[in-house]
Design brief:
By secondary structure, the protein is mainly α. The chain contains six helices and no strands.
């Protein structure tokens, strides 16, 4: 709760600032939101809940994406969350967004190629079984 309150306070102050340090503050808040999303994701991954919900992590990643839309890291993390629920098209969308920005996520292209490779293997298996 302390860190959540701190993030809200920082976001409020960023909106009020007008000097050159705004960009630095935005990047700092962006990184913190990513870290909070990661922590929420890990907590849910390793919890004993049978029905996993990554909604809290998703909210942090979405806030990060809105805060600094020129970076692809938040979009990559949203794609990772989509893979947990087998939402492959959503994952592909976010992977594409993670590489089509000013500061693309380094592993985004490889992640996208991995998704396409998995789909190609699944397609070949269905074709072999004459389902398609």
């Amino acid at each position: 709760v302390f860190y959540q309150d701190m993030m809200i306070e920082l976001e409020t102050r960023i909106q009020q600032m007008v000097d050159l340090n705004v960009e630095i503050m935005i990047k700092c808040v962006y990184r913190c939101l990513l870290f909070l999303g990661d922590l929420a994701r890990y907590r849910e991954m390793y919890s004993e809940n049978t029905n996993k919900s990554f909604l809290e992590a998703e909210r942090y990643y979405e806030r990060a994406a809105l805060m600094f839309s020129n970076s692809g890291n938040a979009q990559n993390q949203l794609a990772v969350l989509a893979t947990y629920s087998d939402a492959e098209f959503v994952a592909i969308y976010h992977y594409c967004r993670s590489i089509m920005v000013e500061h693309p996520f380094t592993g985004g292209f490889e992640n996208l190629m991995t998704m396409f490779s998995k789909n190609a293997v699944a397609y070949a298996a269905l074709k072999k079984q004459k389902v398609l």
